[in-house]
Task: inverse folding
């Protein structure tokens, strides 16, 4: 690989992709997506993907583009598989032709969720919903087609700053708006994954040319309720009541496993630095990306 390797990134306009320029500043970046401001690329278009790879001649591809709305995937399964399996197959085919490595970001949702301890890489996948099944199909395609690949499973994603529409962003907004009573689920567990830390871990794998299957969440696991308590403390909002409730109170189209907690066992075996604790990651995220934008908090 050259001194400044050419990295083609799909889905560069998303929550994770927004951190790519910062983390991969030593790379020559080809940032693609279907959103304005980036090189247009719809990974579902096999001809467009192959043309892009032939024209740009990247040294490797980081595949972030995906349908990630779990409930929408459940309601539109064909579209979920078209994006998460079909799109991944198109990227893998381009990597195969160009003989370059591929990094595919997957999810802890490939597991059923009934294990009392965190899942490790050699646990047998059994997704509980369409999203998990479509991402697992992508994993299987990558592993079957390519000799050099890294499949990296993330947990509950956090990040995105002012664009954050996920759990952490929603809670911060509600507390900033003066909500004094929040009901938060305490019977589902997962491993928070700060998008910036995820990319930093992937960059270390690329530098070492370490291929295979990896879990890459921040250290530890928790419930949504525990995250809410951490946010309340960081925002210094002791008067906000956070009530733990069952997930039955929030019926959703897609079933969720009881646990999406994962352990980064293969990273430990490689001797790579551990991902920092989820509490530390959330603290930095709030202090550096959210609180400055919400002066009223």
Result:
């Amino acid at each position: 690989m050259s001194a400044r390797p050419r990295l083609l990134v799909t889905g560069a306009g998303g929550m994770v992709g927004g951190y790519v320029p910062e983390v991969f500043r030593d790379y020559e970046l080809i940032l693609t997506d279907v959103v304005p401001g980036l090189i247009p690329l719809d990974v579902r278009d096999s001809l467009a993907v192959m043309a892009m790879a032939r024209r740009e001649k990247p040294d490797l591809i980081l595949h972030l583009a995906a349908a990630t709305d779990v409930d929408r995937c459940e309601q539109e399964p064909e579209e979920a598989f078209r994006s998460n399996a079909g799109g991944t197959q198109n990227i893998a085919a381009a990597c195969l032709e160009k003989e370059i490595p591929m990094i595919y970001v997957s999810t802890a949702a490939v597991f059923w969720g009934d294990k009392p301890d965190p899942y490790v890489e050699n646990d047998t996948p059994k997704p509980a919903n369409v999203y998990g099944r479509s991402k697992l199909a992508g994993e299987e395609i990558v592993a079957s087609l390519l000799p050099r690949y890294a499949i990296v499973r993330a947990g509950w994603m956090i990040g995105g700053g002012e664009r954050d529409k996920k759990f952490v962003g929603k809670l911060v907004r509600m507390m900033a708006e003066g909500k004094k009573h929040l009901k938060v689920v305490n019977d589902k567990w997962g491993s928070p994954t700060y998008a910036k830390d995820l990319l930093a871990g992937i960059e270390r794998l690329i530098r070492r040319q370490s291929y295979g299957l990896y879990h890459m969440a921040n250290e530890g696991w928790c419930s949504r309720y525990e995250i809410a308590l951490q946010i309340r403390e960081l925002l210094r909002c002791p008067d906000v009541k956070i009530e733990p409730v069952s997930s039955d109170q929030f019926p959703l189209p897609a079933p969720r496993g009881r646990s999406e907690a994962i352990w980064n066992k293969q990273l430990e075996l490689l001797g790579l630095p551990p991902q920092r604790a989820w509490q530390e990651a959330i603290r930095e995220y709030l202090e550096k990306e959210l609180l400055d934008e919400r002066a009223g908090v």
